[in-house]
TrEMBL record, chains A, B:
Residues 4-171 form the MoaB/Mog domain. This is Putative competence-damage inducible protein. It comes from the Bacteria. Gene3D superfamilies: 3.30.70.2860, CinA-like, MoaB/Mog-like domain. It comes from Allisonella histaminiformans. Belongs to the CinA family. PANTHER family: NICOTINAMIDE-NUCLEOTIDE AMIDOHYDROLASE PNCC, NMN AMIDOHYDROLASE-LIKE PROTEIN YFAY.
């Protein structure tokens, strides 16, 4: 079944927000065995929206929209959708009653404007909204299916998981499962990785293999389809083993980026990490605490943007800062050692560098970052160079710092004492 | 001139990466007076890509693609583009020579595979790539324009700024400028804001006004077109003043989210902020250091995920943690006061809460967050409740915390002593 995702909203066309809904929905649908072949974004313009829906219904079996189900003037998705399907909108009594009860409960009168949320495509199945006001809908007509989800990400996700996918499974049957595993390769360029894997890339079908350049690493994505998760993994396994054989083990970790891998490793070894961040400004802390339960392996991060904070909180020596500046191997070393002592953690990682766009105090290029890892095996300092804008440098430095911790743990086989 | 942006790459359809290129390009084009009407994403499938290009060339004047210009097997964008335009690909000698020189310089032989990067649409203008290998191109034929940009974000941005836009301006003339200002409204729901602005929303043309629900606030976007930036701002000004009159001043700040506004305010007043973060895990630090020059108003953030770190580094009392737990008004207060002392800053903000998905240690719902702001006017603590998943809660809490600092500065008219 071919799916097209359509996100609506002029704010997306103005570039005000990044389209995270499309990304989430695509991943969710792929995991359930649906192939997303197109993603389109249109603004809140009735004619263009209707035409985009007609184009989508012509090239996909299922069109899923997100956005424009509310009660404001810009909420025109259901009208455009019905028009593109050649169906009329009807007033759904049960939804009207639900809305009346809801607005009575919060002490607002039911207005004609709010009533917009009670109109749906004729014959549509209503998708409940457990965490918001506007319901979604799903309708099949002339062999094509049109599904409307709300725009707020949280409402969209809950509705897709609880109501859309069960409806789709009932209607279209089990589509199997698509699983992806990403292996990150650090320390090689894309052409080098490609030449090592060329024959595998040429004969791929199920699983497929793709290479993607990421800030700080090359991602090798292996994607397989199976009747269930186990079959998909069985198909992937020999290919992954072959890739790992060809690319030296220590540069390869199985995951999207390094921080979930590092988290797993810390948990497994019962180690606790902390950080001292200058140029990454809290990004390592943010990434390390992205997952629930992170408090078991991450103690915290001390963001010291100022020299005096580096000195007073982390104990970096004034002479070090004066002689070598804040962006130096020596400062990185003392920051990591200071943080490890401060937090009483097994491991500490530090970053200090020039994120840009300006140059460093002694004319250094932006992108120069020192990373230090400190632990029972001593402190190791790395001088790194990142390309790109401020955001690239910061992301690259954070990923690389976490990779250096992971490498340190393996190199010295660090375990809880 | 109507533009369609097409991003290519199967990784986008698998939901592996968020499409930040589309967002950046859309904003960039809007700022230069071009209307982006559609954004499409297709995978590395020759037929689907060609058809998506044909559809786009039918409904837009200019089609701009990003991705697929490299030398790997998946790089098929130029071929699909030429085919959709009805043009052939030709070998460009000057590009071939440039590539030979480049690969000789890095000590790699020029292979037939790498030669893919020397082929372009007949008659195309070559867009130089100053920070990568693959050049882009721009060609007009039968009244339609097709532009190819590379996929890596940094390469795409530099090429768009340095070579694409000058070429477009030469070809299409000055398109004027579109400017957007976003006013953030905290403490009201979307329907409430809409009813206050209903007549303005109904009669809008230039500028246009749109409402958008964001984590922690409602964004009111005012967008105007003008011959130049001044004219656009002149058109916006009366509308913005009217909106500010209708929505109580203290809940309105002019910008996208609060952190750039807070940064401006701190700079203007020569104040220095620091943070103590628990549930936000470094996000406040990350956001406050997103812009260059942030070291003048942000000293750092102390991420204390563990109780003992709260105690030993920030000086939160053991009795407080035992009696009230780590997620309490009392702990938030002591964290902020401790951080202010630790960093020697004018202001400190702290967060402590349950980001979820699990419940708190005494059965509290996820989403409960205490925020404290400490400064010369004493410490104020706020109990907040955020809806959504872990990411929503953390983003909402970080934004709200920075808003509370901004509010504190205004409420007590804090200035550097």
């Amino acid at each position: 079944m071919i799916v097209e995702i359509i996100t609506t909203g002029t704010e997306l066309l103005l570039g005000e927000i990044v389209n995270e809904n499309s990304c989430w929905l695509a991943r969710f649908l792929n995991e359930h065995g649906y192939t997303v072949a197109y993603m389109t974004t249109v603004g809140d313009n009735p004619d263009r929206m209707k035409n985009a829906f007609i184009t989508a219904l012509g090239r996909a079996d299922i069109v899923i929209t997100s956005g424009g189900l509310g009660s404001t003037l810009g909420d025109i998705t259901k009208k455009a959708g019905a028009s593109a399907m050649g169906l009329s909108l009807v007033h759904v009594e049960s939804e009207y009653k639900r809305l009346c009860a809801h607005y009575e409960h919060i002490g607002r009168p039911m207005s004609p404007q709010l009533d917009r949320q009670a109109w749906f495509c004729k014959g549509a199945f209503i998708l409940k909204n457990d965490v918001g006001t506007a319901s979604g809908s799903a309708v099949t007509y002339n062999g094509k299916t049109l599904i409307h989800l709300p725009g707020p990400p949280f409402e969209m996700k809950i509705m897709a998981q609880r109501y859309m996918m069960p409806w789709m499974e009932k209607r279209f049957g089990n589509q199997g499962i698509i699983r992806s595993v990403v292996l990150s390769v650090t320390g090689m360029g894309e052409p080098q990785v490609e030449s090592l894997l060329m024959d595998l890339l040429k004969k791929q079908s199920n699983p497929t293999i793709a290479l993607l350049a990421r800030p700080g690493f090359i991602a090798v994505r292996v994607t397989a389809w199976g009747k269930d998760g186990e079959e998909a993994l069985d198909r992937m396994e020999p290919v992954i083993r072959e890739i790992e054989k060809r690319i030296p083990e220590h540069t390869t970790v199985r995951e999207q980026g390094i921080h979930p891998v590092l988290a797993e490793e810390l948990k497994k070894r019962e180690l606790v990490l902390c950080a001292a961040e200058s140029c990454t400004g809290g990004l390592i802390g943010k990434l390390m605490t992205d997952y629930p339960g992170s408090s078991s392996y991450f103690k915290g991060s001390c963001v010291t943007y100022w020299n005096e904070a580096k000195e007073h909180i982390l104990g970096v020596k004034k002479e070090t800062l004066d002689k070598y500046t804040a962006v130096s191997a020596e400062t990185a070393r003392e920051m990591a050692e200071g943080a490890r002592k401060l937090y009483g953690a097994h491991l500490a990682v530090s970053t200090t560098g020039y994120a840009g766009p300006g140059q460093g105090e002694r004319g250094e290029d932006p992108g120069l970052v020192y990373i230090a890892v400190s632990g029972e095996a001593g402190t190791r300092v790395y001088k790194e160079k990142f390309l790109g804008d401020r955001n690239n440098v910061r992301m690259g430095a954070a990923e690389k710092a976490m990779y250096r911790v992971w490498q340190y743990i393996h190199l010295f086989n660090i375990r809880r004492q």
